[in-house]
Design brief:
The structure holds 2 protein chains of 2 kinds. Chain A is α/β, with parallel strands linked by helices. Helices cover 36% and strands 22% of the residues of chain A. In chain A, helix 8 links the parallel strand 6 and strand 7. A 5-stranded parallel beta sheet of chain A has the order 5-6-7-3-8, sandwiched between helices. In chain A, strands 2-1-4 form a 3-stranded antiparallel beta sheet. Chain B is mainly α. Chain B has one domain: MetI-like fold (Orthogonal Bundle), CATH 1.10.3720. In chain B, 72% of the residues lie in helices and 0% in strands. Chain B has 9 helices and no strands. In chain B, helix 2 runs parallel beside helix 5, helix 4 packs antiparallel against helix 5 and helix 7 runs antiparallel to helix 9. The mean pLDDT of chain B is 85. The chains are: A alpha/beta, B mainly alpha.
Chain lengths: 245, 271
């Protein structure tokens, strides 16, 4: 089975030391890959690299990144290794159209992923418009917004609420809705349990899995909760402490 | 209050206060003793002073004195506040330290003393409200920068920028639309309009000191009149000199400035 995302031999450094060393991650359609490790092991850094976010200096030392389902054998890190911040910035610009479309991201703090001064409905509309085949008419767009809200168990009325007015759980659900609304091939969920109580954590992760599977996208779940990972992950990548490999 | 209505009222206040400045006469009309001490509702409109010169000309010249400096001071505060908010979103410790250093140094200066020094440093024949207004704006900027940075921090700062970049938004769109346009706007507009209001009151205050002591003004040429002249006429009314309509017009202008600030604050709130 070919992977949706293939990150091989990732090594990212700052002048003093390696932040991550020789990390391999593969994400497959309909499967959940968990990225585990203690704090400071480079989980978020590796996940960000999978979206071509590389903003440390000197940065990428080694590794290849491929999106086989999208661009075949193309290595997105070609020309970026040892290229420093300028090459990394160029990569970031080149791949902007992929983020929020082919690969989406649900960050640790849901409130940071949403614009508090914009309505939930409008944020969902913008995400839906990034689909490969976006809705043709305003009525279809409104219908797609309603479906996205239903998928994450939010009432239709939430569409009119400002994101800044949502409770923690609702914000987490909205952030998930925004992340899956473009129908991405890869969903990266960065420690969705952060800041939530155990009951809500379980609900959100189960919701995340259900939604990701119904949309047939592969999921990269970043977590340091052994129990969560054992329960939900199909594949596990474990990072050693300190990222030294 | 409905935001559209608030915008309309703020625009109306701005127009009432400052548009007459565009039509202000270079010099006051010659004295016409037949009109001396005419009342508020008599011709010429808003009454006349002891020499029969229309008070409306005082109001128009006063508008011309304050309009441009107040507007530029407000814009400068908005610009510096924007800078403070954006620096808080860059995640750069160096940039944040620079903003903090600027705030601490400038914020520690006694505003009125610095403004008076600037007013005295400007040569008499080049006196204008503009350098005083811009100095006031720089001195007011740390407050605006702090408040904008606090809003940016509540958004999540650099994490907010990164999350929106992960949604595929460009850096320019994130900074200009999501951060400044949608989240910092209420704070920046309020700070800008407050500064405009403060510059108007500063002009009135400094001019009042000069008028009362029959000294040359700090803020405008001696051939021009300030709204402070109107208030001074009103003050004289308490000394039984018959010109109380001047006080009414002066206070009305000050009131409209305050109302404009209130309406702008209402108009720019998030919802």
């Amino acid at each position: 089975m070919s992977a949706l995302l293939e990150l091989k031999g990732l090594t990212i450094a700052i002048p003093e030391r390696n932040l991550v060393t020789d990390v391999d991650i593969e994400v497959h359609s309909g499967r959940i890959t968990a990225l585990m490790g203690p704090s400071g092991s480079g989980k978020s850094l590796s996940a960000r690299a999978a979206m071509c976010f590389l903003d440390v200096d000197p940065g990428l030392k080694a590794g290849t990144l491929k999106y086989p389902a999208l661009s075949g054998d193309k290595d997105w890190f070609e020309g970026v290794r040892d290229g420093g911040p300028r090459a990394q910035d160029r990569l970031l610009k080149e791949t902007r159209h992929l983020r929020g479309a082919f690969v989406t991201y649900a960050p640790q703090a849901a409130s940071s992923a949403l614009n508090p001064a914009r309505t939930v409905g409008r944020q969902l509309e913008l995400a839906i418009l990034r689909r490969e085949s976006p809705p043709a008419s305003p009525a279809d767009l409104a219908q797609a917004v309603r479906e996205c809200l239903e998928d994450v168990g939010l009432p239709h009325t939430a569409s009119a609420a400002l994101a800044g007015e949502l409770s923690g759980g609702m914000a987490q659900r909205t952030a998930l809705a925004v992340a899956v609304a473009p129908l991405p091939k890869v969903l990266i969920a960065d420690e969705p349990e952060t800041g939530l109580d155990p009951v809500l954590t379980r609900q959100i992760i189960e919701l995340m899995i259900r939604v990701a599977q119904s949309k047939k996208c592969g999921m990269l779940l970043i977590s340091h909760h052994e129990e969560t990972v054992e329960r939900v992950a199909d594949d596990v990548v474990r990072l050693p402490p300190g990222g030294h490999g | 209050m409905n935001r559209k209505l608030a915008w309309a009222l703020a625009t109306l206040c701005f127009a009432v206060l400052f548009v007459p400045g565009l039509f202000a006469p270079e010099h006051l009309s010659p004295p016409d003793m037949a009109n001396a001490y005419l009342g508020f509702s008599s011709a010429p409109p808003f009454g006349a002073d002891a020499s029969g010169r229309p008070l409306s000309e005082y109001a128009m010249q006063g508008a011309r004195v304050v309009a441009l400096p107040a507007l530029l001071a407000g814009l400068l505060v908005v610009f510096l506040g924007t800078l403070g908010g954006l620096l808080a979103c860059t995640g750069s410790q160096r940039a944040e330290a620079a903003a903090q250093g600027f705030g601490e140094v400038v914020g520690a200066l006694p505003r009125m003393v610095v403004v008076l020094v600037v007013a005295l440093l400007v040569p008499k024949d080049a006196r204008s409200l503009l350098p005083i207004a811009l100095t006031w704006a720089v001195l007011a900027a740390p407050g605006a920068m702090d408040e904008a940075a606090a809003v940016a921090s509540r958004l999540g700062g650099a994490r907010f920028v990164e999350a929106l970049r992960a949604h595929g938004f460009s850096r320019a769109r994130i900074y200009l639309i999501h951060i400044v346009g949608m989240n910092l706007r209420p704070v920046l507009m309020r700070q800008g309009v407050e500064t405009m209001m403060q510059v108007v009151f500063l002009e009135i205050g400094l001019s009042y000191l000069a008028v009362q002591d029959s000294q040359p003004s700090f803020t405008h040429g001696d051939s021009e009149k300030s709204w402070a002249d109107l208030l001074y006429f009103g003050y004289q009314a308490f000394l039984d000199i018959p010109s109380s309509h001047g006080l009414f017009l002066g206070l009305a202008l000050v009131g409209v400035v305050a109302l404009m600030s209130v309406f702008v604050t209402q108009a720019v709130r998030a919802r």
